[in-house]
TrEMBL record, chain A:
Residue ranges crossing the lipid bilayer per the database entry: 21-42, 62-85, 97-118, 124-142, 170-203, 223-243
Membrane topology, from the record: Multi-pass membrane protein
Keywords, ordered alphabetically: Membrane, Transmembrane, Transmembrane helix, Transport
Family designation: Belongs to the binding-protein-dependent transport system permease family.
UniProt domain ABC transmembrane type-1: residue ranges: 62-243
Name the record gives this protein: ABC transporter permease
Pfam families: BPD_transp_1 (PF00528)
């Protein structure tokens, strides 16, 4: 009784602590954006810079970037989670090692290489970039789904089978809910990876903040380069923050 | 197998020449085992590790599929029925308890009723009722998560969950094994009291002979290789062990352990009457165990016991007579 009460107190203490920490990241992002705003405002922009940093150009690139990230992450999850679940089923468990090795290898290949190779084979554009991003971000989702399901205590599965659950009911009521925290962590990693790798999509003509950065490099205009990089950073931090919030909200209570 | 005698009508679980052999192993885990467990009986399977007792238990609800033989529950051959459906009708308690950490206590208890399609409000009411039954305050525990409960409390919930759909049969695999010794004894006592009320047919596995003696109506002692060395009441096993293996397994102290299983009424028949009033006596009930009677006599420094016998009035037994009578083989007594 008293231990239970203690657990509750310590848990709510940890809760408030975490709650206060959730505001650190957005404050950093806001400070970053504010500094960027002041910095750009203080500059005397030449015509090239002004054209590259026009509001609609930058915001358009940002929007494209977000689209790339969201679409590729959704597809990554849509492919990675079912595949990961399938690879933990008894019949094909052995194939898991092979698929994991392949996913590992695909991530070991430099992302720019994957992008350029795919562009050479399938052409350029938004969807090609999405395919490359999905291939690249598949590993953490796949691996964490498999690990998350495998780490479920076998005694729980035995208890479930013993009370008459079918293997499907065991998956839906025991394995998947208990794997959620690990799976969410994998999805979060995939999201962050995608924000970074999507900057390379500019090389295959898929737009995004990478195009701002690369035009900064190509035109030798420092402010353009800085705006592109800083916005990418701010986006990555924001996405990480949102993913953290989602992770907390979706984590089943009691574990 | 058809030449085997037909099971008696009060048999709840019948194992008929059941074997389990895993592919690639030449020795069977369980081979040609036949047992009959009666309705409302509490049977404990006990034996050294690797003797096949857990496999036997798990074959009853077909978590392990037998490779030969038949299993009958309540007269129905369940060897080939749908396993999931069969298990929904059989309570199952395991040592690791296996409460789902992401569900509340009430939801854990209601898992089987939910699978059986019982309405939500009804499930909840049933869960609260069962919490009460296993001695946990529903108001305090129903909406907690398993992690907030102690090991002993969790196993009570485990028992409640197994009882949720009111199954006639309960299988328990070392249910009290993970609980600390003090809580274990308390749980055992409470469970016996609970069993007196619910009268389920229970098959329990343990490696602890003391637990088996304390809980079982009958005990099945397995030798390695799933040979059923003896299947009898605790008193009979202590009094007349079938062979050296059983004698070794029961271990030393059998004569003393018997004293808690013998009642004073049991020994009265063989005890010669001693003159009443020969010494200071403690009054005991004929239903008390000899162990309890002795304890009282020794604690009070008395010389014997005084028992009220319906037809002869009261009888006095001095300590020596009581002990001599209690050490007689039980065959004479029953």
């Amino acid at each position: 009784m008293s231990t239970a009460a203690m657990t509750e107190t310590s848990r709510s203490a940890a809760g408030t602590e975490r709650k206060s920490r959730t505001w650190v990241l957005p404050s950093v992002v806001l400070a970053l954006l504010g500094t960027l705003w002041l910095y750009v405002g203080s500059l005397d922009l030449d015509s090239v810079e002004a054209r590259s940093l026009a509001g609609d150009v930058v915001l358009g690139a940002l929007w494209q970037h977000i689209q790339l990230v969201v679409v590729s992450t959704v597809l990554t999850v849509a492919v990675g989670v079912p595949l990961g679940v399938a690879l933990t089923r008894p019949g094909i468990r052995r194939a898991g090692a092979i698929v994991l090795a392949a996913a590992n290898a695909s991530q070991a290949v430099p992302s720019i290489g994957v992008l350029v190779l795919l562009a050479m084979i399938f052409g350029v554009g938004f969807w090609m970039a999405v395919v490359a991003l999905v291939l690249y971000a598949l590993l953490p989702v796949l691996r964490n789904t498999m690990v998350g399901i495998r780490q479920v205590d076998p005694a729980l599965i035995d208890a479930g089978r013993g009370m008459g659950m079918s293997t499907r009911e065991v998956l839906l009521t025991i394995e998947l809910p208990l794997a959620v925290p690990v799976m969410l962590a994998g999805i979060r990693v995939a999201l962050i990876l995608n924000v970074g790798v999507a900057t390379l999509a500019a090389f295959t003509n898929a737009g995004g903040l990478g195009s701002v950065i690369s035009s900064g490099i190509a035109l030798d205009r420092m402010p353009v380069l800085i705006v592109g990089s800083a916005l990418t950073m701010a986006l990555a931090l924001t996405v990480d923050w949102l993913a953290g919030l989602a992770e907390r909200a979706l984590r089943p209570r009691g574990i | 197998m058809s030449d085997r005698p037909t099971p008696s009508p009060d048999a709840m679980i019948v194992l008929d020449g059941v074997s389990k052999r895993y592919p690639g192993q030449d020795k069977a885990v369980v081979s040609d085992l036949s047992m009959e467990i009666r309705r409302g009986e509490f049977v404990v399977l006990v034996g050294p590790s690797g003797c096949g007792k857990t496999t036997t238990l798990r074959m009853i609800n077909r978590l392990v599929e037998p490779t030969a033989g038949r299993i009958l529950i309540d007269g129905r051959d369940v060897t080939h029925v749908d396993g999931d459906e069969l298990r929904r009708g059989i309570g199952y308690v395991i040592q690791q308890i296996g409460l789902l950490p992401h569900l509340t206590i009430a939801d854990n208890i209601a898992l089987v009723p939910k699978m059986l399609g019982v309405a939500k409000s009804e499930r909840r009411a049933r869960a609260l009722e069962l919490l009460e039954l296993v001695g946990l305050d529903p108001a305090l525990h129903a909406d907690r998560h398993p992690r907030q409960l102690s090991g002993g409390q969790q196993q009570r919930v485990g028992v409640a969950r197994a009882l949720a759909s009111d199954p006639p049969v309960m299988l328990m695999d070392e249910p009290f094994g993970a609980v600390d010794p003090i809580a274990r004894e308390k749980l055992q006592t409470e469970f016996l009291r609970l069993q007196e009320r619910i009268r389920k047919t229970i098959v329990m596995v343990t490696h602890d002979m003391d637990e088996a003696l304390r809980l079982g109506d009958r005990i099945a002692i397995f030798d390695s290789g799933s040979r059923l060395a003896q299947f009898d009441t605790p008193l009979e096993i202590l009094s007349n062990p079938a062979d050296d293996f059983v004698r070794d397994f029961v271990g030393s102290g059998a004569p003393v352990r018997r004293l808690s299983l013998l009642t004073v009424a049991d020994v009265l028949g063989t005890a010669p009457s001693t003159a009443a009033g020969a010494g200071r006596a403690i009054e005991v009930d004929p239903g008390d165990s000899v162990h309890t009677a002795l304890e009282q006599v020794l604690a009070a420094g008395a010389e014997g016991i005084e028992v009220a016998v319906p037809e002869e009035g009261s009888r006095f037994l001095d300590l020596g007579t009581l002990l001599t009578a209690a050490s007689q083989p039980a065959k004479v007594l029953t």
